[in-house]
Amino acid sequence: MREKEVFYVEIPNPVDCRRSVLEASRDLLRGLQKYEDLKKIRFQKLREMSVLKNIIKEINTLLNQARNSLPSVTVRMPEPAKQKEAKKAQRPKKKAIEEEEAKKPREVAELEKQLKDIEGKLTGLG
Fold first, then answer.
1. Which of 120, 33, 41, 51 is nearest to 92 (CA)?
2. 25 alpha carbon, distance to own chain's centre
3. Mapping DSSP to helix (H, G, I), strand (E, B) and coil, where does residue 89 land?
4. What is the pTM of this model?
5. How many CB atoms lie within 10 A of CB 118?
6. Which of 39, 49, 48 is nearest to 107 (CA)?
7. Helices in 1-126 by DSSP H: which ranges?
8. Whether 126 contacts 27, CB under 8 Å
């Protein structure tokens, strides 16, 4: 068997090269933080939408009770069956939402720690 040949490449400005790599890493981590914030906002939106759906269900229940207490009238507003099925399919699962919410704080904390490490290295370089 033949041993692997090792080649070395000279870097003309190693400090500048390292600084640029660390700055790129910092920018990447900031982008990841923004993405995590966006995921939080999307999750909050889903949660608020589910709360709104529950309120609408309650309103519909109260409306039906009010209709039942009033005299019957022949005017009706039919609701298509396809829309009802689509609404049922779009509901988010509670377990998946809770698991996603539990993972987010750990990921964000890890990103913040990495960002602080990189900024510390950058200040050490000059």
1. 51
2. 21
3. helix
4. 0.45
5. 19
6. 39
7. 14-69, 81-89, 94-125
8. no
What value does the CA radius of gyration of the chain take, rounded to a whole number of Å? 28
Condensed to tens digits (0 to 9), the pLDDT of residues 44-75 reads 999 999 999 999 999 999 999 988 888 766 76
- How does pLDDT run across 72-118, given as a tens digit for each residue? 667 667 777 666 666 665 665 666 666 666 667 777 788 888 888 88
pLDDT for position 106: 75
How high is the pLDDT of residue 115? 86
CA distance 38 to 121: 28
Q: What DSSP assignment string belongs to 65-87?
A: HHHHHSPP-S------HHHHHHH
Structure tokens at 94: 């509670």
Buried b (16+ CB within 10 A) or exposed e, 67-98: eeeeeeeeeeeeeeeeeeeeeeeeeeeeeeee
Residue whose C-alpha is closest to residue 116's, from 14, 5, 29, 11: 29
- Residue 28 in this model has a pLDDT that exceeds 90: yes
